[in-house]
Design brief:
The chain is about 15% helix and about 30% strand. By secondary structure, it is α+β, with helices and mostly antiparallel strands. The chain has one domain: Cyclophilin-like (Cyclophilin, Beta Barrel), CATH 2.40.100. The strands form three sheets. An eight-stranded antiparallel β-barrel has the order 2-3-13-11-12-5-4-14. A five-stranded antiparallel beta sheet has the order 6-10-9-8-7, with no helix packed on it. A three-stranded antiparallel beta sheet has the order 1-15-16, with no helix packed on it. The radius of gyration is 19 Å and the shape is globular. It is an enzyme of class 5 (isomerase). GO terms for molecular function: peptidyl-prolyl cis-trans isomerase activity.
Length: about 280
């Protein structure tokens, strides 16, 4: 069978070990909710200050017992310290926004050919969906994107974060995206819808039991995950199979794919592999 005739699922199933990259526990956040675990892969090349901030806050235990207090259907789930009563110990009080950054050769941008309405060019860096314009690059608000909430002033973000329930591309370059959910998105999607409370007696939404850096957890509790690399021929085949689905079920093949519809495969590492 010609490689271009394989469907996305078959391409993933037939991929080689070198088509995958182990997700570093030092750059994974584990959000424990009553309904289950959510794992977020923090950006390793973009929004470095925001990645460092969330890890510092997690290591303080800042989010333990707080909540997802603003959950809007079809929009975002926002969590943190709604009344700003919790002490920040080692993290920054606020951060300079990183709406976009300089694109460097070291980032190894893999473009896709498809036209995008929000960016001159889109593609991937380390399996993260990004937009590029000139010499600037930024992460995209695809489903599962984790970003820093802020006030009207651009540099007012510090502790409050949100996760996109659906793509919110009009927010690109207006807020700083610094991570993506790689496991447990179904738990975010099912959070109780709630408006921000106006008083401490109002519904604050579902509790955040804890947020931890995965590397700080006991080894047997750390997520063992790998993500498909975006800089390989296998990934190029995967993109093409999503652009023009080859399965006989499909009669119309548009020769186009939306970057946010290119969900990057993530899978658990088999226990015998993780022990090596």
């Amino acid at each position: 069978m010609n490689a271009q005739k394989r469907g996305p699922g078959q391409i993933v199933a037939e991929s080689a070990p070198e088509d995958w990259r182990t997700l570093d526990p030092e750059n994974l956040l584990v959000i424990e909710l009553e309904r289950g675990r959510v794992v977020v892969a923090l950006s390793e090349k973009l929004a470095a200050s925001h990645t460092a901030q969330l890890k510092a806050l997690a290591r303080e235990g800042f989010y333990d017992g707080l909540s997802f207090y603003r959950v809007i259907d079809g929009f975002v789930a926002q969590g943190g310290d709604v009344f700003e009563t919790r002490e920040i110990k080692t993290a920054e009080k606020s951060l300079a926004a990183m709406f976009d950054e300089s694109l460097t050769d070291a980032m190894k941008f893999t473009p896709i050919k498809d036209v995008d309405g929000y960016a001159p060019q889109v593609g991937f860096i380390d399996s993260e969906a990004v937009g590029v314009g000139g010499d600037r690059v930024w992460k995209l608000h695809c489903t599962g994107a984790m970003a820093m909430a802020r006030g009207n002033e651009k540099d007012t973000g510090g502790t409050e974060f949100y996760i996109a329930i659906q793509p919110q591309r009009y927010l690109d370059r207006n807020l700083t995206v610094f991570g993506n959910v790689v496991e447990g998105m179904e738990h975010v999607q099912r959070l109780r819808r709630v408006a921000p409370p106006e008083s401490e007696d109002d519904d604050r939404g579902e509790e955040i039991i804890s947020i931890r850096v995965a590397a700080d957890l006991p080894e047997d509790e750390q997520p063992a995950l790998e993500i498909m690399r975006s800089d390989t021929p296998t990934f190029a085949d995967y993109v093409e199979a999503r652009r023009n689905r080859p399965e006989e079920f499909f009669y119309f093949r548009p020769d186009h794919v939306d970057v946010c519809a290119l969900s990057i495969p993530v899978r658990a590492i088999a226990s015998d592999m993780s022990a090596e």
